[in-house]
């Protein structure tokens, strides 16, 4: 079995003080993909930066206190790559990948965007470059007899079933028609060629949501968004036997505004 978890920690130093360390000690995951770490490695306590039993690669953003992705793996990676060959985005702390036996696993933090601002233009540029890389990665892996798994905060809800209040968000970044169409291209067998693993396991479910605003009673009312995905090449996706969101029991027990998304694959 291969168990993979992805979670946006919303600041790893803060999460470590609120329960992440205890969660990490208890998890059965073989691979952990973190996003929005928002810290340089030297700013993290040693037991978070390099916990016992894990091999860790951190990819912080050049802009201090922003973005940042990390990969924690039980096995030492055969190869690590930070960024995807983009002159604009490779220093932004948004992508890291590692080769493990038979599979390349990546942690992605796609820009969140904001309609009518440069942040949305940045998101669109990222999406354009990244889709091209996803296709290249899949083709390269196939030639090497490898599978690919890209996990992370994609900051797009693909379908109406992926957010509670979809009617109120049709003009907001994260649920714009052009963003959803782009994600459809990622999943199109004739283009990106990836599979949304959790949706494939739960085709008719509302959600399961992985992010809830801290405002109001969004968490208590399960008024959330499903924006944290595990996107796999088809043969790996077909071997997924269980996928779940590790939702905290109560609002006060949360250590991030996102919850871990975990999938178990039969290798």
Automatic annotation (TrEMBL):
UniProt-annotated site: Interaction with DNA substrate, residues: 258
PROSITE patterns: AP_NUCLEASE_F1_4 (PS51435)
Record InterPro entries: AP_endonuc_1 (IPR004808), Endo/exonu/phosph_ase_sf (IPR036691), Endo/exonuclease/phosphatase (IPR005135), ExoIII-like (IPR037493)
Residues at the site labelled Transition state stabilizer: 155
Domain of life: Bacteria
Site (Important for catalytic activity): 228
Domain Endonuclease/exonuclease/phosphatase: 6-258
Recorded coiled-coil stretches: none
Residues noted as binding Mg(2+) in the record, renumbered to the chain: 8, 36, 153, 155, 257-258
Signal peptide range: none
NCBIfam families (alphabetical): exoDNase_III, xth
Designated name of the protein: Exodeoxyribonuclease III
Species: Streptomyces cyaneogriseus subsp. noncyanogenus
Phylogenetic placement of the source organism: Bacteria, Bacillati, Actinomycetota, Actinomycetes, Kitasatosporales
């Amino acid at each position: 079995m291969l168990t993979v978890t992805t979670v946006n920690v919303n600041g790893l130093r803060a999460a470590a003080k609120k329960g992440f360390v205890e969660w990490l000690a208890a998890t059965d995951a073989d691979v952990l993909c973190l996003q929005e770490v928002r810290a340089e490695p030297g700013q993290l306590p040693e037991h978070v930066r390099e916990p016992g039993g894990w091999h860790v690669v951190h990819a912080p953003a050049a802009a201090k206190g922003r973005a940042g992705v990390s990969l924690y793996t039980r096995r030492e990676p055969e190869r690590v790559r930070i960024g995807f060959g983009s002159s604009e985005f490779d220093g932004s702390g948004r992508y890291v990948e590692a080769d493990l036996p038979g599979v390349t696993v990546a942690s992605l933090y796609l820009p969140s965007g904001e309609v009518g601002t440069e942040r949305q233009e940045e998101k669109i540029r990222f999406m354009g470059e990244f889709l091209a890389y996803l296709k290249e990665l899949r083709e390269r892996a196939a030639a090497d007899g490898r599978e690919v798994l890209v996990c992370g905060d994609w900051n797009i809800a693909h379908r109406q079933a992926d957010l509670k209040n979809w009617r109120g968000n049709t003009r907001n970044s994260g649920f714009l028609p052009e963003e959803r169409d782009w994600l459809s291209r990622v999943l199109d067998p004739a283009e990106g060629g990836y599979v949304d693993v959790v949706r494939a396991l739960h085709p008719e479910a509302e959600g399961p949501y992985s992010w809830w605003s801290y405002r109001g009673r969004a968490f208590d009312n399960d008024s959330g968004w499903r924006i944290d995905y595990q996107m796999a090449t088809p043969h790996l996706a077909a071997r997924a036997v269980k996928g779940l969101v590790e939702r905290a029991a109560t609002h006060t027990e949360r250590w991030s505004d996102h919850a871990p998304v975990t999938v178990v694959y039969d290798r």
